[in-house]
Amino acid sequence: MNADPVDAILAQWQRERPDLDVSPMGIIGRMGRLAKYLDRAIQETFSDFGLNAGEFDVLATLRRSGQPYQLSPTELFNTLMVSSGTMTHRIDRLEQADLVERIPVSSDRRGMLVQLTDKGFNLIEKAVEAHVVNEHRLLSVLEEAERKALTQLLRKFLISFEK
After folding, report:
1. Is the dihedral angle over the CA atoms 49, 53, 54, 56 positive or is it negative?
2. CA-CA distances (angstroms) from residue 8 to 27, 52, 93?
3. Domain final position from 47, 67, 83
């Protein structure tokens, strides 16, 4: 297997500090570098639809919630793990673009739901299809068995943080 830039970093640490087991740096370093490449490649697809990653996340969350494609702002920011201020800002931008609308809750004068507009629904349908195609392309370097193994390992690692 070919060496990558992280291998050079590990070799330098091994030379300078042979007493340290720096193997975790290899895993974490590669994950960090991959995250940057993946974020860039994914954002390129979102940009084709005039969206950034945060806006895509809101629209996709509403879409996958099922009909009538509406959630409260609290449900949105809890699902997306962002602050209420960040969520308000995203909703404002999406509302200005006529991709979502705020719907008052009839049983609670203070309550509000965020709902996809027809324009938002049509946009996220196209964007999510392109996103999935892009993700398949990004993962095409891995064989199916490797994808399954990676999925299991990443799930185990993620669960350790999200207990």
Report:
1. positive
2. 13, 34, 44
3. 47
Q: Domain check: are 73 and 152 in the same one?
A: yes
Beta bridge partners of 112: 104
Report cis status (omega within 30 of 0) of the bond before 5.
no
**pLDDT above 70: residue 109:** no
pTM, two decimals, is: 0.89
β-partners of residue 108 are 105
Cα maximum dimension of the chain = 68
User: Which of 47, 62, 79 delimits the end of a domain?
Assistant: 47
Domain co-membership, 77 together with 149: yes
Residues 22 and 61 in one domain: no
Phi/psi-derived region of residue 160, left when phi > 0, alpha when psi is between -120 and 50, beta in every other case: alpha
* Domain count of the fold of the chain: 2
> Which residues form the domain of 145?
50-161
Least confident of 43-47, 97-101, 110-114: 110-114
Q: How many angstroms separate the CA atoms of 99 and 50, rounded?
A: 11
Average pLDDT over every residue of 131-145? 98
